[in-house]
Amino acid sequence: MFLVIFFVISLLTLAYRAFRYRLTYWTRHGIPQLQPAIPFGDFGPVFRQKRFYGELLQDLYLQSKHLPLVGIYLTFRPVLIAVDPELIKAILVRDADCFSDRGRWQGGAVAVDGFNLMRIAFYFLAPKFKNWLGIKFVDSVVESFMISMVRKISEHREHEKGDQDLIQMLLELRSSDLALKDEIVAAHALFFIIGSYEASTTTTSFCLYELAKNVDIQQKAQQEIDSVISKEEGELTVENLADMRYVDCCINETYRKYPQCQSCSEDVPRTTSCRNTTSQSPSGSTVVIPLLGLANDPEFFPNPEAFLPERFENKPDYGLPFYPFGAGPRSCIAKRLGHLQTKVALVMLLAKFDIALANPDAASVRFDPKFFITKAVGGLNLVFTKRD
């Protein structure tokens, strides 16, 4: 019995020391790190569903403002947070060729109603565990449907030339050196759908919520919509949509305050010291860009809690670390479609309805820590009243 106890204690001690050693990875590479803890690294509150992922990442970013980048741990996985805005711009745009390896999206995207924290947490934060436990990033029904749809379209277009759309481009790549499999084509197609649909519906909801809270901003947007549409005898066109610049400002401010992607990441395929950067990233590192943290940094956006569309007036390139869709050659593929869908929805609703809060006393939003996407606890309850 004594030998069994001794063996168990020795095994636990060795495991603990191995884990502690793993959590000194960045220190051993000469990069500052925070204070990770076993077993969740710097993300214990996220795994315990006590803290929204984006807000915790924002806290880590703000703690490290004096550094160009800082090392953190997603469970035992070492990851870098880029903090310096010039470094971030270099990673996303100027030195994008140095951060070109994102890996393949094996298994597609999560079903549009299933952005459950624990599933995604295992998929991203502990990829080895998700393989052992058989955890998928998609529901099997969604995966089977998308692959089946791609195969049917492929068979049809072998006999009849198709349109030059996204699916056709991906199908043509199958005969190139890339030799894409049906599963990869289906994954990209589903990613495009989710990137445009889920993000645009959520952005529309949060924008309407802010307009309901800020009646003066809502009225200004409605005046612009009424003025532009009246010139076309009530018809909404792509051309007059482009003239609604204040509505664009409202959408951009919603992107800033409620970003759908809390972060974006780039993998380093080799030990890299890119131009315009000050630190060297070890081979195999993942660099995370804290989008919510940047968007709520008062250094770049004074009074970040306020909804102020005027921030984006007369600023075509903003000159700020504003990356709602990422940036550079690997920015979101569906950003134009998503933005257009959001704008059309807002214009159609604001042209016909006044929006108000169902409960004016509950005029604050808490992000749901059980989800990775920006989701309000209890939902967003609004009242629509037909305009005269």
UniProtKB/TrEMBL annotation:
<dbReference type="InterPro" id="IPR036396">
    <property type="entry name" value="Cyt_P450_sf"/>
</dbReference>
<keyword id="KW-0503">Monooxygenase</keyword>
<keyword id="KW-0492">Microsome</keyword>
<keyword id="KW-0256">Endoplasmic reticulum</keyword>
<dbReference type="InterPro" id="IPR017972">
    <property type="entry name" value="Cyt_P450_CS"/>
</dbReference>
<protein>
    <recommendedName>
        <fullName>Cytochrome P450</fullName>
    </recommendedName>
</protein>
<feature type="binding site" description="axial binding residue">
    <location>
        <position position="332"/>
    </location>
    <ligand>
        <name>heme</name>
    </ligand>
</feature>
<dbReference type="InterPro" id="IPR002403">
    <property type="entry name" value="Cyt_P450_E_grp-IV"/>
</dbReference>
<comment type="similarity">
    <text>Belongs to the cytochrome P450 family.</text>
</comment>
<keyword id="KW-0560">Oxidoreductase</keyword>
<comment type="function">
    <text>May be involved in the metabolism of insect hormones and in the breakdown of synthetic insecticides.</text>
</comment>
<dbReference type="InterPro" id="IPR050476">
    <property type="entry name" value="Insect_CytP450_Detox"/>
</dbReference>
<keyword id="KW-0408">Iron</keyword>
<keyword id="KW-0349">Heme</keyword>
<keyword id="KW-0479">Metal-binding</keyword>
<dbReference type="GO" id="GO:0004497">
    <property type="term" value="F:monooxygenase activity"/>
</dbReference>
<dbReference type="GO" id="GO:0005789">
    <property type="term" value="C:endoplasmic reticulum membrane"/>
</dbReference>
<dbReference type="InterPro" id="IPR001128">
    <property type="entry name" value="Cyt_P450"/>
</dbReference>
<dbReference type="Pfam" id="PF00067">
    <property type="entry name" value="p450"/>
</dbReference>
<keyword id="KW-0472">Membrane</keyword>
<dbReference type="GO" id="GO:0046872">
    <property type="term" value="F:metal ion binding"/>
</dbReference>
